[in-house]
Write a structure and sequence with these properties.
This protein is α/β, with parallel strands linked by helices. The protein is built from nine helices and five strands, in the order ααβααβααβαβαβα. Helix 7 links the parallel strand 3 and strand 4.
Length: about 210
């Protein structure tokens, strides 16, 4: 168990039952990165914002600086201006927040079927070694559930983040993070420290 997980339980002892599944989520994302895969995340409303928030923590330094490896630095020619900014580069985990693709989502929703927006993106972009992470406070958001089904059909590891109630998403995903709350705002309040912990543990494993 990592230090960030221990810290999470110190602040939120009621989340301790999620420990094994949090560790599974961390392991899946670490393995995904090392195998050259990417993380596809989606949700609606506040969970849509969470998808972007998680991406922000993984695509750049979160708690660590993640400096560029020396072997990569040597690939940049001193003749290019970018070589002056090599210290600005930070290691990242390839993460795509699907709700941010507003042009595609609106086009597909208008031309085809709104409920299938995320499922289509997963179908178009999902590949071997990728991980899908669906966030739904109810666990029954139709477009998130359909996206999870699309991911499973392609062989992606699937992570579902929900509230405490049984749901379609909790019954479908390989790894389920069910926080101990039933009201939407309370579920969202628990989701944030859980995904911060996951991001911190992934960062520590890959860049520590």
């Amino acid at each position: 168990m990592g230090q960030h997980l221990n810290l999470l339980f110190d602040h939120y002892p009621e989340l301790r039952p999620l420990g094994a599944d949090i560790e599974k989520a961390v392991s899946a994302i670490v393995r995904m990165h090392r195998d050259g895969g990417k993380l596809l995340i989606c949700g609606n409303g506040g969970s849509s914002s969470d998808a972007g928030h998680i991406s922000g923590e993984l695509l750049k330094g979160f708690l660590l600086k993640r400096p560029m490896p020396e072997a990569v630095r040597k690939c940049f020619s001193p003749d290019y201006d970018v070589s002056r900014y090599l210290d600005c580069f930070q290691g990242g985990v390839c993460t795509i927040p699907l709700p941010e693709m507003s042009a595609l989502l609106s086009a597909y929703g208008n031309d085809v079927e709104p409920a299938m927006q995320y499922a289509q993106l997963v179908y178009a972009m999902g590949k071997k070694n990728d991980v899908f992470w669906g966030i739904s406070t109810s666990g029954n958001s139709k477009n998130v559930v359909l996206a999870a089904e699309s991911a499973k059909s392609l062989g992606l590891v699937t992570i579902g983040m929900t509230g405490e109630k049984d749901s379609k998403l909790s019954g479908l995903c390989d790894i389920v993070l069910r926080v101990p709350a039933a009201e939407t705002y309370r579920i969202q309040e628990y989701h944030l420290p859980v995904y911060h912990c996951i991001c911190a543990e992934v960062e520590s494993a890959l860049f520590g």
